[in-house]
Design brief:
Elements (H helix, E strand, L loop, with lengths): L15 H20 L3 E2 L5 E3 H4 L4 H6 L3 E2 L19 H8 L2 E3 L4 H10 L8 E10 L11 E10 L5 H16 L4 E7 H10 L6 H8 L2 H4 L1 H10 L4 H11 L5 H11 L4 H19 L6 E4 L13 E7 L8 E6 L13 E7 H10 L13 E3 L4 H16 L4 E3 L6 H10 L4 E4 L2 H6 L1 E6 L5 E5 L3 H8 L1
Parallel strand pairs: 1-5, 7-8, 12-13, 12-14
Antiparallel strand pairs: 2-4, 3-4, 5-6, 6-11, 7-9, 9-10, 10-11, 14-15, 15-16
Amino acid sequence: MAAKPSIPKGTRDFGPEQMVRRNYIFDTIRQVFNRYGYQPIETPAMENLSTLLGKYGDEGDKLLFKILNSGDFIDKVDANKLKPGNSNAIALDISEKGLRYDLTVPFARFVVQNQNDITFPFKRYQIQPVWRADRPQKGRYREFYQCDVDVIGSNSLLNETELALIINEVFEKLKIRTILKLNNRKILSGIAEVIGESQRLTDITVAIDKIEKIGLEAVNNELRSKGVAEDAIVKLQPIITLSGTNTEKLDTLKGVLAMSETGLRGITEMEEILGYIAENGSLTTTIEIDLSLARGLNYYTGAIFEVKAADTEMGSICGGGRYDDLTGIFGLKNVSGVGVSFGADRIYDVMLQLNLFPESLLASTQVMFANFGNKEAAYCLKAIRALRDSGISTELYPDAAKMKKQFDYANGHKIKFVVIAGDNEVKENLLSVKNMETGQQTTIAYSQISNYISENI
């Protein structure tokens, strides 16, 4: 017996109902991106492994999906390397390409490769899938879509402000109540400096970024395992658990980081961004400074963003930040960028859990013509075309089946109107229209079908 087909763990099929809802999310995000003047690009699913490695930290590198070289991929590998437990050592020998981990690093590569054709500052958006060899769990997949929006070639903090407004507008349109958490990598650098652990900034940020998932004590244990001194860990506690209003937090930090020029610069940037946001008027998203927010990625250098849904337990549904050095890795120095990424799959899960998708989305067809046979079907064709030409989605049931079956089909697809054309209607050049929501049936002249549907849809 043939094995039952399956798909890899952490991936999913999407049926029509899911795709309609997903496209609603994509279309909403795309419309907001366009309204703020961002332009679309796409990059390949696979990148050279040399492009990806070293850009996400040690933990990120472990989650890269690597693609085996074509042909006999072990033919040119040193035989001395081919032994158990040595897989990492031969990875680059047998794999030259990998699936993209995110859209930001490929974007940086794109900018460097196409720098002579780009007008800076360059505002782009990108909606494509990414892949991570993570352990699948609720809200975490191995294949998922990101919706990225970035501006590169500008140092202005007005860009961070604009991204906050985009975040607010997207989730306002999707009717998701959100909390936008803000931090600044310079503030984190200042904290590491004043506790005497500047050389372990990456270890500290990777650890404290996990505080919501594993708790404070587990974070402290991880810091100890990385060699962070005990007195530094003690000094860190009141900083990363700081409470109060945004203004109170920043005022406290000014005292804590008084001896750190870098840290004070981060505070100034944060105050400027919050000031610009305030000038735009009140937002529906709640903005909160969170000093435990680090996002764990090495390429962030300034502001850091993370968005959580306020009404459900879910990980980050949007995040990003400022990266001053990313294109420098590929040879293009002194080009700063900032961007955020919307996690479409988690947004979908949040909206499904909170029942936020409009009911009308599921009605992809607005009008269905019943089928009584070849003669009656042919009679309906011009009316069907007239409705489609008017922008009304219309279909003809393909088979002359029993009416109950045809009505069940219409109800199952939430089709509002069924048009009936039997012998009497054909003889008298009429059409009967049944409203499937109310049960009311009306007979009209054949030529009036477009007007009637348009007025009642």
